[in-house]
Specification:
Blueprint lengths: L7 E5 L3 H13 L3 E6 L2 H8 L2 H4 L4 E5 L7 H10 L8 E5 L4 H10 L3 E4 L4 H14 L30 E5 L3 H11 L4 E5 L2 H9 L6 E5 L7 H10 L8 E5 L4 H10 L3 E4 L4 H63 L4 H32 L7 E4 H18 L3 E4 L9 E4 L1 H18 L5 E9 L2 E8 L27 H11 L3 E7 L3 E9 L5
Parallel strand pairs: 1-2, 1-3, 3-4, 4-5, 6-7, 6-8, 8-9, 9-10, 12-14
Antiparallel strand pairs: 11-13, 14-15, 15-17, 16-17
Helix pairs in contact: 1-6, 2-4, 8-9, 11-12, 12-14, 12-15, 13-14, 14-15
EC number: 2.7.13.3
Catalytic activity: ATP + protein L-histidine = ADP + protein N-phospho-L-histidine
Organism: Lamprobacter modestohalophilus
Length: 522
Protein backbone atom coordinates (compact mmCIF):
# COMPACT_ATOMS: atom_id res chain seq x y z
CA UNK A 1 0.00 0.00 0.00
CA UNK A 2 1.28 3.48 -0.84
CA UNK A 3 2.21 5.75 2.06
CA UNK A 4 -0.17 8.34 0.60
CA UNK A 5 -3.20 6.03 0.93
CA UNK A 6 -4.50 5.61 4.49
CA UNK A 7 -5.12 2.14 5.87
CA UNK A 8 -8.82 1.27 5.69
CA UNK A 9 -10.50 -0.69 8.47
CA UNK A 10 -13.74 -2.54 9.06
CA UNK A 11 -14.63 -1.89 12.71
CA UNK A 12 -17.03 -4.19 14.59
CA UNK A 13 -18.60 -3.45 17.98
CA UNK A 14 -22.12 -3.84 19.36
CA UNK A 15 -21.98 -0.57 21.34
CA UNK A 16 -22.70 2.46 19.10
CA UNK A 17 -20.68 4.86 21.26
CA UNK A 18 -17.66 2.55 21.08
CA UNK A 19 -17.97 2.34 17.29
CA UNK A 20 -17.89 6.12 17.16
CA UNK A 21 -15.00 6.31 19.61
CA UNK A 22 -12.98 3.82 17.56
CA UNK A 23 -13.80 5.75 14.41
CA UNK A 24 -12.67 9.07 15.90
CA UNK A 25 -9.49 7.54 17.32
CA UNK A 26 -8.55 5.87 14.04
CA UNK A 27 -9.27 8.90 11.88
CA UNK A 28 -7.33 11.08 14.31
CA UNK A 29 -4.30 8.85 13.69
CA UNK A 30 -4.62 9.02 9.90
CA UNK A 31 -6.59 5.84 9.22
CA UNK A 32 -9.87 5.48 7.33
CA UNK A 33 -12.95 3.61 8.54
CA UNK A 34 -14.16 1.80 5.43
CA UNK A 35 -17.20 0.21 7.10
CA UNK A 36 -18.73 -0.46 10.52
CA UNK A 37 -20.81 -3.35 11.86
CA UNK A 38 -22.70 -3.99 15.11
CA UNK A 39 -21.82 -7.70 15.38
CA UNK A 40 -19.88 -10.48 13.71
CA UNK A 41 -22.73 -11.61 11.49
CA UNK A 42 -23.24 -8.11 10.10
CA UNK A 43 -19.50 -7.87 9.45
CA UNK A 44 -19.56 -11.15 7.50
CA UNK A 45 -22.52 -9.94 5.48
CA UNK A 46 -20.59 -6.80 4.55
CA UNK A 47 -17.52 -8.82 3.54
CA UNK A 48 -19.63 -10.91 1.14
CA UNK A 49 -19.70 -7.89 -1.18
CA UNK A 50 -16.64 -7.57 -3.36
CA UNK A 51 -16.77 -3.77 -3.35
CA UNK A 52 -16.55 -3.81 0.47
CA UNK A 53 -13.71 -6.37 0.54
CA UNK A 54 -11.73 -4.23 -1.90
CA UNK A 55 -11.96 -1.28 0.49
CA UNK A 56 -11.02 -3.14 3.68
CA UNK A 57 -7.35 -3.61 4.62
CA UNK A 58 -7.92 -4.82 8.18
CA UNK A 59 -10.65 -5.92 10.60
CA UNK A 60 -10.82 -4.44 14.12
CA UNK A 61 -13.44 -6.29 16.19
CA UNK A 62 -14.60 -6.43 19.80
CA UNK A 63 -14.50 -9.86 21.45
CA UNK A 64 -17.87 -9.79 23.26
CA UNK A 65 -20.80 -9.22 20.88
CA UNK A 66 -24.29 -10.69 20.40
CA UNK A 67 -25.23 -12.98 17.49
CA UNK A 68 -21.58 -13.66 16.66
CA UNK A 69 -18.65 -12.76 18.91
CA UNK A 70 -15.21 -11.65 17.80
CA UNK A 71 -13.62 -15.10 18.04
CA UNK A 72 -16.25 -16.72 15.82
CA UNK A 73 -15.96 -13.83 13.36
CA UNK A 74 -12.19 -14.39 13.25
CA UNK A 75 -12.67 -18.09 12.51
CA UNK A 76 -15.20 -17.38 9.76
CA UNK A 77 -12.89 -14.83 8.14
CA UNK A 78 -9.94 -17.22 8.23
CA UNK A 79 -12.09 -20.04 6.77
CA UNK A 80 -13.05 -17.97 3.71
CA UNK A 81 -10.31 -17.83 1.04
CA UNK A 82 -11.54 -14.38 -0.03
CA UNK A 83 -10.92 -12.89 3.44
CA UNK A 84 -8.39 -15.28 4.97
CA UNK A 85 -5.44 -12.90 4.49
CA UNK A 86 -7.05 -9.90 6.19
CA UNK A 87 -5.15 -8.76 9.31
CA UNK A 88 -7.44 -9.13 12.34
CA UNK A 89 -7.16 -7.09 15.54
CA UNK A 90 -9.17 -8.25 18.56
CA UNK A 91 -10.36 -5.59 21.04
CA UNK A 92 -11.22 -6.68 24.56
CA UNK A 93 -11.30 -5.50 28.14
CA UNK A 94 -10.51 -8.87 29.71
CA UNK A 95 -8.26 -11.58 28.32
CA UNK A 96 -7.56 -14.87 30.05
CA UNK A 97 -4.59 -16.97 28.99
CA UNK A 98 -6.95 -19.66 27.66
CA UNK A 99 -8.87 -17.20 25.51
CA UNK A 100 -5.65 -15.68 24.20
CA UNK A 101 -4.43 -19.12 23.20
CA UNK A 102 -7.75 -19.85 21.43
CA UNK A 103 -7.54 -16.61 19.47
CA UNK A 104 -3.94 -17.21 18.48
CA UNK A 105 -4.80 -20.71 17.27
CA UNK A 106 -7.64 -19.21 15.26
CA UNK A 107 -5.29 -16.80 13.51
CA UNK A 108 -5.60 -13.47 15.32
CA UNK A 109 -2.98 -10.95 14.22
CA UNK A 110 -2.80 -8.97 17.45
CA UNK A 111 -4.81 -7.70 20.42
CA UNK A 112 -5.89 -4.25 21.57
CA UNK A 113 -6.46 -4.28 25.32
CA UNK A 114 -9.07 -1.97 26.80
CA UNK A 115 -8.61 0.68 27.97
CA UNK A 116 -6.44 2.14 25.20
CA UNK A 117 -5.35 5.52 23.92
CA UNK A 118 -5.54 6.59 20.28
CA UNK A 119 -1.74 6.40 20.13
CA UNK A 120 -1.57 2.85 21.49
CA UNK A 121 -4.40 1.80 19.15
CA UNK A 122 -2.56 3.25 16.16
CA UNK A 123 0.62 1.43 17.17
CA UNK A 124 -1.23 -1.90 17.26
CA UNK A 125 -2.93 -1.23 13.92
CA UNK A 126 0.35 -0.41 12.16
CA UNK A 127 2.07 -3.42 13.70
CA UNK A 128 -0.78 -5.74 12.70
CA UNK A 129 -0.75 -4.45 9.13
CA UNK A 130 2.99 -5.05 8.96
CA UNK A 131 2.64 -8.73 9.85
CA UNK A 132 -0.56 -9.34 7.91
CA UNK A 133 -2.90 -12.25 8.55
CA UNK A 134 -0.26 -14.60 9.89
CA UNK A 135 -0.74 -15.98 13.37
CA UNK A 136 0.14 -13.39 15.92
CA UNK A 137 3.69 -12.09 15.51
CA UNK A 138 5.73 -12.57 18.65
CA UNK A 139 9.41 -11.94 19.22
CA UNK A 140 11.57 -14.99 19.63
CA UNK A 141 11.15 -16.46 23.08
CA UNK A 142 7.89 -14.63 23.80
CA UNK A 143 5.07 -16.29 25.67
CA UNK A 144 2.14 -16.72 23.25
CA UNK A 145 -0.27 -16.48 26.17
CA UNK A 146 1.13 -13.07 27.16
CA UNK A 147 0.80 -11.02 23.95
CA UNK A 148 -0.27 -7.80 25.60
CA UNK A 149 3.09 -7.05 27.09
CA UNK A 150 4.48 -7.03 30.62
CA UNK A 151 6.71 -9.52 32.32
CA UNK A 152 6.32 -12.86 30.60
CA UNK A 153 6.05 -15.97 32.73
CA UNK A 154 8.44 -18.01 30.63
CA UNK A 155 11.07 -20.34 31.96
CA UNK A 156 13.71 -17.71 31.18
CA UNK A 157 12.04 -15.28 33.60
CA UNK A 158 12.06 -11.46 33.37
CA UNK A 159 14.63 -9.70 31.20
CA UNK A 160 18.07 -9.15 32.69
CA UNK A 161 18.53 -5.67 34.16
CA UNK A 162 21.31 -3.49 32.76
CA UNK A 163 23.74 -1.85 35.20
CA UNK A 164 26.16 0.78 33.86
CA UNK A 165 29.28 1.19 36.02
CA UNK A 166 31.36 4.33 35.39
CA UNK A 167 34.93 4.45 36.74
CA UNK A 168 38.30 5.51 35.33
CA UNK A 169 39.98 2.57 37.09
CA UNK A 170 39.55 -0.75 35.19
CA UNK A 171 40.20 -2.72 38.39
CA UNK A 172 37.20 -1.09 40.07
CA UNK A 173 35.01 -1.90 37.06
CA UNK A 174 36.13 -5.53 37.23
CA UNK A 175 35.27 -5.75 40.95
CA UNK A 176 31.75 -4.45 40.30
CA UNK A 177 31.25 -6.77 37.33
CA UNK A 178 32.31 -9.83 39.32
CA UNK A 179 29.96 -8.87 42.15
CA UNK A 180 26.93 -8.37 39.90
CA UNK A 181 27.26 -11.07 37.25
CA UNK A 182 25.38 -13.18 36.25
CA UNK A 183 22.37 -11.56 37.97
CA UNK A 184 22.79 -8.34 35.99
CA UNK A 185 23.97 -7.35 32.53
CA UNK A 186 26.92 -5.11 33.41
CA UNK A 187 28.11 -2.42 30.99
CA UNK A 188 31.14 -0.24 31.63
CA UNK A 189 32.41 3.24 30.80
CA UNK A 190 35.88 4.54 31.70
CA UNK A 191 34.94 8.23 31.58
CA UNK A 192 31.96 10.56 31.74
CA UNK A 193 31.76 11.22 28.01
CA UNK A 194 31.38 7.50 27.20
CA UNK A 195 28.94 7.07 30.08
CA UNK A 196 26.60 9.73 28.69
CA UNK A 197 26.55 8.03 25.28
CA UNK A 198 25.85 4.58 26.74
CA UNK A 199 23.13 5.96 29.01
CA UNK A 200 21.32 7.61 26.08
CA UNK A 201 21.55 4.53 23.84
CA UNK A 202 18.88 1.85 23.45
CA UNK A 203 18.21 -0.08 25.56
CA UNK A 204 19.10 2.34 28.35
CA UNK A 205 20.63 1.12 31.61
CA UNK A 206 18.27 0.45 34.51
CA UNK A 207 20.75 1.93 36.99
CA UNK A 208 24.10 3.75 36.93
CA UNK A 209 26.97 3.25 39.40
CA UNK A 210 28.91 6.51 39.07
CA UNK A 211 32.38 7.19 40.48
CA UNK A 212 32.86 10.72 41.81
CA UNK A 213 36.58 11.28 41.26
CA UNK A 214 37.33 11.05 37.53
CA UNK A 215 39.54 13.15 35.23
CA UNK A 216 38.08 15.41 32.49
CA UNK A 217 34.49 15.12 33.77
CA UNK A 218 33.83 14.22 37.39
CA UNK A 219 30.79 12.40 38.72
CA UNK A 220 28.90 15.57 39.72
CA UNK A 221 29.15 16.95 36.17
CA UNK A 222 28.08 13.62 34.66
CA UNK A 223 25.10 13.54 37.02
CA UNK A 224 24.12 17.08 36.02
CA UNK A 225 24.17 16.18 32.32
CA UNK A 226 22.20 12.97 32.93
CA UNK A 227 19.46 14.93 34.71
CA UNK A 228 19.33 17.54 31.92
CA UNK A 229 18.60 14.92 29.25
CA UNK A 230 14.93 13.75 29.28
CA UNK A 231 16.03 10.34 27.98
CA UNK A 232 18.31 9.71 30.96
CA UNK A 233 16.83 11.89 33.71
CA UNK A 234 14.82 9.08 35.32
CA UNK A 235 17.67 6.54 35.49
CA UNK A 236 18.63 5.93 39.16
CA UNK A 237 22.20 6.93 40.00
CA UNK A 238 24.26 5.58 42.90
CA UNK A 239 27.45 7.50 43.63
CA UNK A 240 30.55 5.40 44.37
CA UNK A 241 33.39 7.11 46.24
CA UNK A 242 36.46 6.26 48.30
CA UNK A 243 36.12 9.23 50.61
CA UNK A 244 33.28 11.73 50.93
CA UNK A 245 32.34 14.27 53.57
CA UNK A 246 28.80 14.70 54.84
CA UNK A 247 28.51 17.99 52.95
CA UNK A 248 29.54 16.26 49.73
CA UNK A 249 27.00 13.49 50.32
CA UNK A 250 24.28 16.10 50.83
CA UNK A 251 25.35 17.99 47.70
CA UNK A 252 25.22 14.81 45.60
CA UNK A 253 21.79 13.80 46.85
CA UNK A 254 20.52 17.34 46.30
CA UNK A 255 21.85 17.26 42.72
CA UNK A 256 19.78 14.15 41.98
CA UNK A 257 21.77 11.12 43.10
CA UNK A 258 19.59 8.39 44.58
CA UNK A 259 22.12 6.80 46.94
CA UNK A 260 25.84 6.43 47.55
CA UNK A 261 28.27 3.63 48.35
CA UNK A 262 31.71 4.00 49.93
CA UNK A 263 34.71 2.08 48.59
CA UNK A 264 35.94 -0.59 49.10
CA UNK A 265 32.74 -2.13 47.75
CA UNK A 266 31.05 -4.91 49.72
CA UNK A 267 29.13 -7.11 47.22
CA UNK A 268 26.20 -7.86 49.55
CA UNK A 269 25.70 -4.17 50.38
CA UNK A 270 26.09 -3.20 46.71
CA UNK A 271 23.42 -5.70 45.61
CA UNK A 272 21.04 -4.62 48.37
CA UNK A 273 21.40 -0.94 47.42
CA UNK A 274 20.86 -1.74 43.73
CA UNK A 275 17.80 -3.91 44.38
CA UNK A 276 16.26 -1.18 46.53
CA UNK A 277 16.72 1.46 43.83
CA UNK A 278 15.38 -0.83 41.11
CA UNK A 279 12.25 -1.52 43.16
CA UNK A 280 11.75 2.22 43.61
CA UNK A 281 12.27 2.76 39.88
CA UNK A 282 9.73 0.06 39.02
CA UNK A 283 7.19 1.67 41.33
CA UNK A 284 7.83 5.11 39.83
CA UNK A 285 7.54 3.75 36.28
CA UNK A 286 4.27 2.02 37.10
CA UNK A 287 2.92 5.18 38.70
CA UNK A 288 3.95 7.24 35.67
CA UNK A 289 2.25 4.82 33.28
CA UNK A 290 -0.87 4.79 35.43
CA UNK A 291 -0.92 8.58 35.49
CA UNK A 292 -0.58 8.78 31.70
CA UNK A 293 -3.35 6.22 31.31
CA UNK A 294 -5.57 8.04 33.79
CA UNK A 295 -5.13 11.33 31.92
CA UNK A 296 -5.89 9.57 28.64
CA UNK A 297 -9.00 8.00 30.20
CA UNK A 298 -10.26 11.33 31.47
CA UNK A 299 -9.80 12.90 28.04
CA UNK A 300 -11.47 9.94 26.37
CA UNK A 301 -14.38 10.09 28.82
CA UNK A 302 -14.76 13.81 28.16
CA UNK A 303 -14.72 13.19 24.41
CA UNK A 304 -17.36 10.47 24.75
CA UNK A 305 -19.43 12.67 27.03
CA UNK A 306 -19.28 15.53 24.54
CA UNK A 307 -19.98 13.22 21.61
CA UNK A 308 -22.97 11.59 23.27
CA UNK A 309 -24.49 14.85 24.45
CA UNK A 310 -24.24 16.50 21.05
CA UNK A 311 -24.34 13.61 18.59
CA UNK A 312 -26.85 11.33 20.30
CA UNK A 313 -28.83 13.08 23.03
CA UNK A 314 -29.97 16.02 20.91
CA UNK A 315 -31.35 13.88 18.05
CA UNK A 316 -32.95 11.51 20.58
CA UNK A 317 -34.69 14.36 22.33
CA UNK A 318 -35.92 15.61 18.96
CA UNK A 319 -37.21 12.14 17.99
CA UNK A 320 -39.14 11.79 21.24
CA UNK A 321 -40.55 15.30 20.88
CA UNK A 322 -41.61 14.82 17.26
CA UNK A 323 -43.19 11.46 18.09
CA UNK A 324 -45.22 13.08 20.87
CA UNK A 325 -46.34 15.85 18.52
CA UNK A 326 -47.45 13.32 15.91
CA UNK A 327 -49.51 11.51 18.54
CA UNK A 328 -51.20 14.73 19.60
CA UNK A 329 -52.28 15.60 16.05
CA UNK A 330 -54.89 12.85 16.04
CA UNK A 331 -54.88 12.14 12.30
CA UNK A 332 -52.64 9.04 12.27
CA UNK A 333 -54.12 5.69 11.33
CA UNK A 334 -53.91 2.92 13.95
CA UNK A 335 -51.00 1.31 12.07
CA UNK A 336 -49.16 4.62 11.78
CA UNK A 337 -49.75 5.38 15.45
CA UNK A 338 -48.37 1.96 16.40
CA UNK A 339 -45.23 2.69 14.38
CA UNK A 340 -44.97 6.11 16.06
CA UNK A 341 -45.11 4.44 19.47
CA UNK A 342 -42.41 1.94 18.48
CA UNK A 343 -40.16 4.77 17.31
CA UNK A 344 -40.68 6.57 20.60
CA UNK A 345 -40.05 3.38 22.58
CA UNK A 346 -36.83 2.72 20.67
CA UNK A 347 -35.66 6.27 21.37
CA UNK A 348 -36.27 5.78 25.10
CA UNK A 349 -34.37 2.49 25.02
CA UNK A 350 -31.33 4.15 23.46
CA UNK A 351 -31.68 6.98 25.96
CA UNK A 352 -31.42 4.44 28.76
CA UNK A 353 -28.10 3.23 27.36
CA UNK A 354 -26.90 6.81 27.04
CA UNK A 355 -27.77 7.45 30.67
CA UNK A 356 -25.69 4.45 31.69
CA UNK A 357 -22.66 5.44 29.64
CA UNK A 358 -22.57 9.17 30.28
CA UNK A 359 -24.86 10.43 33.01
CA UNK A 360 -23.66 7.84 35.51
CA UNK A 361 -20.08 8.96 34.99
CA UNK A 362 -20.99 12.61 35.52
CA UNK A 363 -23.09 11.78 38.59
CA UNK A 364 -20.18 9.80 40.08
CA UNK A 365 -17.92 12.81 39.57
CA UNK A 366 -20.44 15.16 41.17
CA UNK A 367 -20.69 17.13 37.93
CA UNK A 368 -24.31 16.42 37.02
CA UNK A 369 -26.86 19.26 37.26
CA UNK A 370 -30.39 17.87 36.81
CA UNK A 371 -32.95 19.89 34.84
CA UNK A 372 -36.09 19.35 36.89
CA UNK A 373 -39.51 19.22 35.26
CA UNK A 374 -42.89 17.59 36.02
CA UNK A 375 -42.90 13.85 35.21
CA UNK A 376 -46.14 11.85 35.15
CA UNK A 377 -45.13 8.63 36.90
CA UNK A 378 -48.18 6.67 35.73
CA UNK A 379 -47.51 7.41 32.06
CA UNK A 380 -43.79 6.77 32.39
CA UNK A 381 -44.29 3.52 34.32
CA UNK A 382 -46.68 2.27 31.64
CA UNK A 383 -44.08 3.09 28.99
CA UNK A 384 -41.39 1.15 30.85
CA UNK A 385 -43.78 -1.80 31.19
CA UNK A 386 -44.46 -1.76 27.44
CA UNK A 387 -40.75 -1.70 26.68
CA UNK A 388 -40.11 -4.64 29.02
CA UNK A 389 -43.03 -6.77 27.83
CA UNK A 390 -40.82 -8.86 25.47
CA UNK A 391 -38.53 -9.74 28.41
CA UNK A 392 -41.52 -10.54 30.61
CA UNK A 393 -43.17 -12.72 27.96
CA UNK A 394 -39.92 -14.62 27.39
CA UNK A 395 -39.78 -15.44 31.11
CA UNK A 396 -43.54 -16.05 31.35
CA UNK A 397 -43.81 -13.28 33.94
CA UNK A 398 -46.89 -11.07 34.26
CA UNK A 399 -46.51 -7.31 34.78
CA UNK A 400 -49.33 -5.81 36.87
CA UNK A 401 -49.95 -2.11 37.48
CA UNK A 402 -52.12 -1.33 40.48
CA UNK A 403 -54.54 1.53 39.83
CA UNK A 404 -54.34 4.60 42.06
CA UNK A 405 -57.36 6.61 43.17
CA UNK A 406 -55.57 9.92 42.50
CA UNK A 407 -53.41 9.45 39.39
CA UNK A 408 -53.23 13.22 38.88
CA UNK A 409 -51.23 13.45 42.12
CA UNK A 410 -48.54 11.06 40.90
CA UNK A 411 -46.35 13.70 39.29
CA UNK A 412 -42.70 13.86 40.32
CA UNK A 413 -40.19 16.67 40.01
CA UNK A 414 -37.28 15.17 38.09
CA UNK A 415 -35.82 14.25 34.70
CA UNK A 416 -37.92 11.97 32.54
CA UNK A 417 -35.00 10.02 31.07
CA UNK A 418 -33.31 9.48 34.44
CA UNK A 419 -36.53 8.28 36.07
CA UNK A 420 -37.15 6.01 33.07
CA UNK A 421 -33.71 4.45 33.61
CA UNK A 422 -34.33 3.98 37.35
CA UNK A 423 -37.67 2.24 36.82
CA UNK A 424 -36.39 0.15 33.91
CA UNK A 425 -33.46 -1.12 36.00
CA UNK A 426 -35.64 -2.12 38.95
CA UNK A 427 -38.38 -3.71 36.83
CA UNK A 428 -35.88 -5.60 34.69
CA UNK A 429 -34.20 -7.01 37.81
CA UNK A 430 -37.60 -7.99 39.21
CA UNK A 431 -38.62 -9.76 35.99
CA UNK A 432 -35.33 -11.66 35.79
CA UNK A 433 -35.63 -12.74 39.44
CA UNK A 434 -39.22 -13.97 39.13
CA UNK A 435 -39.94 -17.60 38.31
CA UNK A 436 -42.12 -18.58 35.35
CA UNK A 437 -45.84 -17.88 35.83
CA UNK A 438 -45.05 -15.43 38.59
CA UNK A 439 -45.90 -11.74 38.57
CA UNK A 440 -44.23 -8.39 39.14
CA UNK A 441 -46.52 -5.75 40.63
CA UNK A 442 -46.11 -1.98 40.54
CA UNK A 443 -48.03 0.33 42.83
CA UNK A 444 -47.90 4.03 43.71
CA UNK A 445 -48.06 6.10 46.85
CA UNK A 446 -48.02 9.84 47.54
CA UNK A 447 -48.01 12.17 50.51
CA UNK A 448 -45.78 14.46 52.51
CA UNK A 449 -44.45 16.19 49.41
CA UNK A 450 -43.24 12.90 47.94
CA UNK A 451 -44.34 10.33 45.38
CA UNK A 452 -43.30 6.69 45.51
CA UNK A 453 -43.16 3.81 43.06
CA UNK A 454 -43.04 0.32 44.59
CA UNK A 455 -41.81 -2.63 42.49
CA UNK A 456 -42.76 -5.97 44.09
CA UNK A 457 -41.75 -9.50 43.12
CA UNK A 458 -42.00 -12.88 44.92
CA UNK A 459 -38.28 -13.77 44.78
CA UNK A 460 -36.05 -12.99 47.74
CA UNK A 461 -32.83 -11.03 47.33
CA UNK A 462 -29.99 -13.51 48.10
CA UNK A 463 -28.73 -12.95 51.64
CA UNK A 464 -25.13 -12.99 50.39
CA UNK A 465 -25.66 -9.74 48.50
CA UNK A 466 -28.22 -7.81 50.55
CA UNK A 467 -25.78 -5.66 52.52
CA UNK A 468 -23.90 -4.56 49.40
CA UNK A 469 -26.76 -4.56 46.89
CA UNK A 470 -26.31 -0.88 46.03
CA UNK A 471 -22.53 -1.09 45.73
CA UNK A 472 -20.89 -0.77 42.33
CA UNK A 473 -20.24 -4.16 40.76
CA UNK A 474 -22.47 -6.06 43.19
CA UNK A 475 -24.12 -8.98 41.38
CA UNK A 476 -25.18 -12.51 42.23
CA UNK A 477 -26.11 -15.47 40.05
CA UNK A 478 -25.91 -13.55 36.76
CA UNK A 479 -23.19 -14.83 34.48
CA UNK A 480 -23.16 -11.61 32.44
CA UNK A 481 -24.28 -9.24 35.21
CA UNK A 482 -22.50 -5.88 35.34
CA UNK A 483 -23.51 -4.98 38.89
CA UNK A 484 -24.48 -1.48 37.75
CA UNK A 485 -28.29 -1.68 37.77
CA UNK A 486 -29.19 -0.96 41.40
CA UNK A 487 -26.00 1.07 41.89
CA UNK A 488 -26.83 3.47 39.06
CA UNK A 489 -30.52 3.61 40.01
CA UNK A 490 -29.58 4.71 43.54
CA UNK A 491 -27.21 7.43 42.30
CA UNK A 492 -29.75 8.73 39.79
CA UNK A 493 -32.51 8.85 42.40
CA UNK A 494 -30.27 10.71 44.83
CA UNK A 495 -29.17 13.31 42.26
CA UNK A 496 -32.89 14.04 41.72
CA UNK A 497 -33.33 14.58 45.45
CA UNK A 498 -34.89 11.16 46.03
CA UNK A 499 -33.89 7.75 47.33
CA UNK A 500 -34.23 4.00 46.82
CA UNK A 501 -34.76 1.36 49.50
CA UNK A 502 -35.81 -2.27 49.62
CA UNK A 503 -37.18 -4.94 51.92
CA UNK A 504 -36.82 -8.66 51.32
CA UNK A 505 -38.24 -11.25 53.71
CA UNK A 506 -40.38 -14.36 53.76
CA UNK A 507 -43.53 -12.48 54.74
CA UNK A 508 -43.45 -9.51 52.35
CA UNK A 509 -41.12 -11.04 49.74
CA UNK A 510 -39.18 -8.30 47.87
CA UNK A 511 -40.18 -4.68 47.36
CA UNK A 512 -38.01 -1.91 45.91
CA UNK A 513 -39.29 1.60 46.61
CA UNK A 514 -38.32 4.70 44.65
CA UNK A 515 -39.06 7.96 46.47
CA UNK A 516 -39.00 11.23 44.52
CA UNK A 517 -39.98 14.84 45.29
CA UNK A 518 -43.53 15.62 44.21
CA UNK A 519 -44.12 18.35 41.65
CA UNK A 520 -46.01 21.28 43.19
CA UNK A 521 -46.52 23.39 40.07
CA UNK A 522 -49.93 24.54 38.93
Amino acid sequence: MSDDIPMRLLIVDDIPTMLKTLSYALEDQGFEVAAAAADGQEALNLLKHERVRERVDMVLADWHMPKMNGLELLRQIRANPKTAKLPFLMVTGEISRTRVADAIKSGVTDFVAKPFTSESLAKRVRSAFKYGASAMHLPSGSDPANPLGGESETSSGPRQRIILTVDDEPDNIEIVAEALKPQYNVKAAINGRIALKVAAAQPPPDLILLDIMMPEMDGMEVLSKLKQNPRTASIPVIFVTAKWTNDEVAAGLTAGADDYIVKPIQPTILKARIETQLRLKDAADALREQLDLTVAHIRLQEDIDRMVRHDIRNPLTAIIGYADELGEQGYLTPVQNELREKIEQAAFTVSELVNFSVELLRIERGEYEPKLAPVNLVDLTQRVMRDLQPLARAGMVELLLQEHDQPEALVASGERLLIYTILANLMRNAIEATAARGSVRIRFEHGGGQVKVHVLNPALVPSAIRERLFEKGATFGKEDGSGLGTYSAKLMAEVLGGSISFISNEKERTCFSVTLPAHHGR
